[in-house]
Design goal:
The structure holds three protein chains of three kinds.
Chain A: E1 3-4, E2 11-12, E3 17-20, E4 25-26, E5 30-33, E6 36-39, E7 43-48, E8 51-56, E9 68-77, E10 80-84, E11 90-94, E12 118-126, E13 132-135, E14 142-144, E15 148-151, H1 157-161, H2 166-175, E16 178-181, E17 186-190, H3 193-209, H4 215-226, H5 233-241, H6 244-247, H7 250-255
Parallel strand pairs in A: 4-8, 11-13
Antiparallel strand pairs in A: 1-3, 2-7, 3-6, 5-6, 7-8, 9-10, 9-12, 10-11, 12-13, 12-14, 15-17, 16-17
Helix pairs in contact in A: 2-4, 3-4
Chain B: H1 3-14, E1 30-34, E2 42-48, E3 51-62, E4 73-78, H2 95-110, E5 120-122, E6 126-138, H3 143-157, E7 159-164, E8 167-177, E9 185-192, E10 195-198, H4 202-205, E11 210-216, E12 222-228, H5 235-253
Parallel strand pairs in B: 4-6
Antiparallel strand pairs in B: 1-2, 2-3, 3-6, 5-6, 7-8, 9-10, 9-11, 11-12
Helix pairs in contact in B: 2-3
Chain C: E1 18-22, E2 30-36, E3 39-50, E4 63-70, H1 86-99, E5 103-104, E6 111-121, H2 126-140, E7 144-145, E8 150-157, E9 160-163, H3 167-170, E10 177-185, E11 190-194, E12 197-198, H4 202-211, H5 213-229
Parallel strand pairs in C: 4-6
Antiparallel strand pairs in C: 1-2, 2-3, 3-6, 5-7, 8-9, 8-10, 10-11, 10-12
The chains are: A alpha+beta, B alpha+beta, C alpha+beta.
Chain lengths: 260, 257, 232
């Protein structure tokens, strides 16, 4: 008779025996060794019937098709740009994916995207060797001006976005900041200086406590305690108009873990 | 560096709000511990925000320099361990780590903090050599100030080993401490745009237009300086930066009490 | 005179006091701290990241690199000269081969994972402490690994089999001493590091390798607890 040794939603670590016997099946983050199922990554255990998998709590970003990410232009190529996407692999933005407008052959590419420009783009292809193609054509995809970029663990991104974007909307509404969250863990923030600080501190708190239950309530009361009045009403208006939905793909919503 | 992003941060700095919400003249939280390394004759760990530095002092007996036959020798080293920051790489010491060690060394040496004549055992033959090594574990900026503070804390913690037939016996540590008469404090002021700030984080250091490190003694006199960064400084700016440094040095010196 | 009581009063199969933590290096992708007695080690993991020069890349898998270094003030005697030595290069290499069997980097072709190990103070057993810290750091970095690698030394002091020798025991002059650093994958009991310094009989070696298993499994539990405590 099989026996589960760890509770659902508990943290498991490499080499830890999660279940004994043949009644359970290993999946992401777990493997079978003889009669036991063990963890092979630090993660939150998720018991789905007989299937034992884990949700990773750390790790670098691995590019995946249809992800919306924030990248930085690090090189200008013959017919495109090389983009750092906060991963072990860089992406290439080919000429034909850079703009809906026609770009003439031999044009000065730095006029479109210069070195050190930050962009919101989408990953359209990943090969088995992790060669990555990138596009700027699509709703919400754009060059970023001003503001600041922070980096969080990409495994915490679903928590920061929240179910249907609820978490990030809550922060936007409270601080009046514009926020764009990339699946690769880079987040762009722009607002009044003191509001940006509150935004960053809130995101850091979510990152630290992403594995805990009741996070939405906790963050709500954190924001209530720390919020300051939005002076520049323009900021607020702008943010309201900008539909957060557009910035995210359906996939992101699906990946959000939601609340307990 | 992206100009747009730099301008955005400069605008915020002009309102006296830094990236992490601090005021321009505000240090991060500092902690100081001493006697943390059992293999060193003196040691300290200083943390300042996410910067953490360990300093170890090893005492040794060696020959004095030919031009200073009755003086002990102080040597300061620093290494930017690749463990402490993703942008540091393995290999021979880089310019930055040599600068850090030399600026800290100057602050201590030129002030006469240690009475080196008292380190002489036999003139021309045997003197105490003080080896100070600065080891950053977590590097999030301001290594000079934090390193210098850790060096002073470690020197104050240092005790001589007993001598057995003229050779140090590291298993027997005496109660005798180093002859320290002064407490220099180093403060680095950064200039970003038109703003002066203290205790920069690593990301703030990347925005540096110019910087000035000043070593300051208890009587507010200066005992070492180093200008860095690619932009020039006016005399007016320099005097302003020194005033901030003198003010801040009093706060930091409290950690050596 | 037989060695029937250890110099520091420990039981023969008892390690020194152990302390372990995860997430101690803020800017690293993963990090660990491991202290056993007066030997302590920090480890930081950076990566997977792009590997240069390209000639070092492996299109089948990510590459693991390890770097072991003693801080200048970490030795009991004279100052350790900074920079790589023959000793530190060899230890870096055996550390890598001790860790490789558990680590799976096949998701990261052409990339590299760097492990930096720094020792602020040592009292024997530094390579084992380094391996323990490194395996906490790798797990903390979210690297796929089938188990933590755990390491401690065993050996013999004047005919007595003991665990976790310190400097005083390594320098014992009353009889033969052998120091055997061992690293093991706890779930399979496979050995991934084995070195020896000294003199030991075949029988005693077998006894030592038997005796070291339980302490190694206890250390693995301490490493795993450190990884969990980060999220408390």
């Amino acid at each position: 008779m099989g026996k589960l040794l760890v509770n659902d939603k508990d943290i498991v670590v490499p080499g830890e025996i999660i279940a004994e016997g043949m009644d359970f099946l290993p999946s992401t983050g777990t493997y079978r060794h003889k009669d036991n199922i063990l963890a092979d990554k630090v993660g939150l255990l998720s018991v789905d019937g007989k299937v034992l998998k884990t949700i990773a709590l750390s790790g670098k970003y691995l590019p995946s098709r249809n992800d919306t990410v924030i990248g930085r232009v690090i090189d200008i190529l013959m017919s495109g740009w090389r983009i750092d996407i906060n991963s072990a692999y860089t992406a290439v933005l080919p000429l034909q994916e850079a703009s809906f407008d026609y770009i003439q052959k031999g044009a000065d590419l730095s006029k479109f995207f210069a070195l050190d420009d930050y962009v919101v783009g989408k990953i359209i292809r990943v090969t088995s060797q992790n060669l990555v193609d990138f596009t700027m054509k699509g709703p919400g995809l754009r060059k970023l001006y001003g503001g600041r970029i922070i980096s969080v663990s990409p495994t915490k991104v679903p928590r920061i976005i929240g179910k249907q974007g609820s978490m990030v909307s809550m922060i936007k509404d409270t601080t009046g900041c514009k926020i764009t969250v990339g699946q690769n863990g880079l987040i762009w923030i722009e607002g009044e200086p003191e509001q940006e600080v509150i935004t960053v501190n809130t995101i850091r708190k979510i990152e630290r406590e992403a594995h805990k239950n009741g996070l939405t309530e906790e963050i709500k009361s954190y924001l209530d305690k720390n919020k300051i009045e939005i002076k520049n009403k323009e900021f607020k208006k702008e943010t309201k108009e900008e539909k957060p939905k557009e910035e995210r793909t359906k996939k992101e919503d699906d990946e959000s873990q939601g609340e307990q | 560096m992206n100009k747009d992003f730099k301008n955005h941060i400069e605008k915020s700095l002009s309102k006296n709000i830094r990236i992490d919400g601090r005021k321009n003249d505000e240090f991060r939280k500092i902690t100081v511990e001493t006697g943390i390394i059992s293999t060193a004759e003196g040691s300290a760990r200083v943390t300042c925000g996410d910067t953490e530095v360990i300093v170890g002092v090893k005492l040794d007996i060696g020959k004095p320099y030919p031009d200073k036959l009755d003086e002990g020798v102080l040597m300061t080293g620093a290494e930017l361990y690749p463990l402490s920051n993703p942008e540091f790489e393995s290999g021979p010491p880089r310019e930055e780590s040599i600068e850090i060690a030399r600026v800290i060394d100057r602050g201590i040496r030129e002030s006469g903090t240690i009475d080196v004549k008292k380190l002489c055992i036999e003139a021309g033959e045997k003197v105490w050599m003080i080896n100070v090594d600065i080891a950053p574990i977590n590097m999030d900026g301001n290594l000079i100030d934090i390193g210098a503070l850790a060096v002073m804390a470690a020197l104050k913690d240092t005790k001589f080993p007993e001598l057995k037939d003229g050779v140090p016996d590291y298993k027997k540590i005496s109660k005798k401490k180093l002859p320290i008469s002064k407490l220099p404090i180093e403060i680095t002021i950064l200039k970003i745009g038109d703003t002066f700030l203290v205790d920069p984080t690593y990301s703030e250091e990347k925005l540096t237009d110019a910087r000035l490190t000043v070593a300051i003694l208890e009587d507010d006199s200066l005992c070492a300086m180093q200008k860095g960064g690619e932009e020039p400084l006016t005399q007016e700016s320099i005097m302003k930066m020194i005033d901030i440094a003198i003010k801040k040095s009093k706060e930091l010196r409290k950690f050596l009490a | 005179m037989a060695y029937n009581k250890r110099l520091d009063g420990r039981k023969f199969d008892e390690t020194r006091e152990i302390e372990a933590k995860a997430g101690v290096i803020k800017k690293a992708d993963g990090s660990g701290y491991f202290r056993i007695g007066k030997t302590s080690a920090y480890a930081a993991v950076y990566g997977p990241k792009e590997l240069f020069p390209k000639s070092m890349q492996d299109p089948k898998t990510g590459v693991l690199r390890c770097n072991y270094n003693m801080m200048p003030f970490s030795g009991a005697g004279e100052r350790v000269r900074p920079g790589p030595s023959r000793r530190s290069k060899e230890i870096s290499m055996v550390t890598k081969t001790a860790l490789l069997p558990v680590v799976d980097l096949t998701d990261y072709p052409n990339a590299v994972v760097d492990v930096f190990i720094e020792l602020p103070q040592t009292d024997a057993g530094s390579r084992c402490a380094g391996i323990c810290a490194a395996s906490i750091a790798l797990a903390d970095a979210g690297i796929r690994m089938k188990d933590v690698v755990t390491a401690v030394s065993c050996g013999i002091v004047d005919k007595q089999v003991v665990i976790d020798l310190d400097y005083a025991e390594e320098a014992y002059e009353g009889g033969d001493v052998a120091d055997i650093p061992v690293a093991m994958i706890p779930s399979t009991e496979e050995i991934t590091l084995l070195q020896m310094d000294g003199n030991i009989s075949r029988e005693n070696l077998k006894k030592a390798l038997e005796m070291v298993k339980e302490p190694l499994k206890k250390i693995a539990e301490i490493q795993r607890k450190a990884l969990k405590d980060k999220y408390k």
